[in-house]
Amino acid sequence: MTDMTVDLGGLEMRTPVATASGTFGYGREYAEMVDYSRIGAITAKGVRMVPWPGNPMPRHCEVPGGLLNAIGLQGPGAEHFVKWTLPQLRALDVPVIANVWGASVEEYAQAAAVLDAAAGVSAIEVNVSCPNVKEGGHTFGSSPRILAETVRAVRAAVKKPLIVKLAPNVPDIAPYIHALEDEGADAVSLINTIPAMAIDIEKRRPVLANRTGGLSGRCVHPAAVKIVYDAYRAGKLPILAMGGVYGPEDAIEFMLAGATAVAVGTATFTDPSTAVRIADGIDRYCGRHGFSAARELTGALLETAP
Ligand SMILES: Cc1cc2nc3c(=O)[nH]c(=O)nc-3n(C[C@H](O)[C@H](O)[C@H](O)COP(=O)(O)O)c2cc1C
Fold first, then answer.
1. Which pLDDT belongs to residue 131?
2. Looking at per-residue confidence, does 25 or 214 come out higher?
């Protein structure tokens, strides 16, 4: 029997497999289909302080090897989430990671404080891939300086484990990891979706009403592995890796590259039991390769070429 437990910056998980924000509803939708005892954590869909309608439709489409979405962070608001959604999530007996965003640094801190104070939230994940109006619409995660400012404000408002979710479209992940370490984050999530676009050539129009969106699914996986590998070597923050995890081999690849745990996103749409299947596969792999604990896989990559 493999010891499957991992510690993600203070968040105790019974397996290293979580669900990714925005792809598992608010958890309860899958109650009939999933063995929650094999899931390490459920990450809820992102919320800000106020209810938010998201973008106009159409807001997602399939692309080769993946999914393009511009949902636009639709959500009921932090207080509604705490009052109405959290009680049902708590009944599943799985640690809940609340995912938070804002339109200003102040709103990030305020929403994070509401979620931090809620019984039943085990950790806070901060999505910094949202436009910062004060900084000309660039995202809060697009420069290490603004990232540091945002994380500092949230850290001051949050006692629970603080995970910051970074975007993949930066030239070098190292300064972002250093900013998170300096500001006291407990872990990093990588990757959010990759900015992308699809065009309907017959209509000569963008497919999505928002014109552009974020790419996820199988096609982003190798890019995500490289970023996780770079992040692991840049610092000491535990990593929650996501991006095209469809089977145990994808999860193990992430862990060998340096991830402490992984999250399943787009794959859940085609097979809701993916996370459970992956936990079982990691367990079998550890047995086959002589690892007594799943946590031993983290960074266990042999660097020499074959
Ligand atoms: C439909 C959809 C909605 C998403 N919503 C959120 C969200 O609210 N907050 C967030 O931080 N990430 C969100 N994400 C990003 C995912 O959590 C994940 O980082 C990304 O999709 C890469 O993983 P995957 O390839 O396994 O899907 C969303 C992704 C999709 C596909």
1. 82
2. 214
* Protein residues with CB under 6 Å of any ligand 1 atom: 20-23, 45-46, 67, 69, 71, 73, 99, 127, 165, 192-193, 216-217, 220, 242-245, 264-267
At residue 281 the predicted structure's pLDDT band, cuts being 50, 70 and 90, is: very high
Q: Is the separation of the CB atoms in 195 and 210 below 8 Å?
A: no
**DSSP of 115-184:** HHTSTT--EEEEE--SB-GGGTT-BTTSSHHHHHHHHHHHHHH--S-EEEEPPS-SS-SHHHHHHHHHTT
Running DSSP on this structure, what letter comes out for residue 204?
A: T
Is the per-residue pLDDT at 117 higher than 80? yes
CA 134 to chain centre: 25
Render pLDDT for 228-279 as a digit per residue (tens, 0 to 9). 999 999 999 999 999 999 999 999 999 999 999 999 999 999 999 999 999 9
State which ligand 1 atom lies nearest to the alpha carbon of 129.
11
Q: Grade residue 134 by pLDDT with cuts at 50, 70 and 90.
A: confident
For the CA of 221, the closest atom of ligand 1 is: 25
Residues 249 and 252: their CA atoms lie apart, in Å, by 5
| Residue of 164, 192, 220, 254 to mutate, ligand 1, most atoms within 8 A of C-beta | 192
Q: Nearest-5° angle of CA 156, CA 159, CA 161?
A: 110
Domains defined for the chain, CATH in brackets: 6-297 (3.20.20.70)
CB atoms inside a 10 Å sphere around CB 64:
8
Distance CA 174, CA 178 (A): 6
Which residues belong to the active site?
130
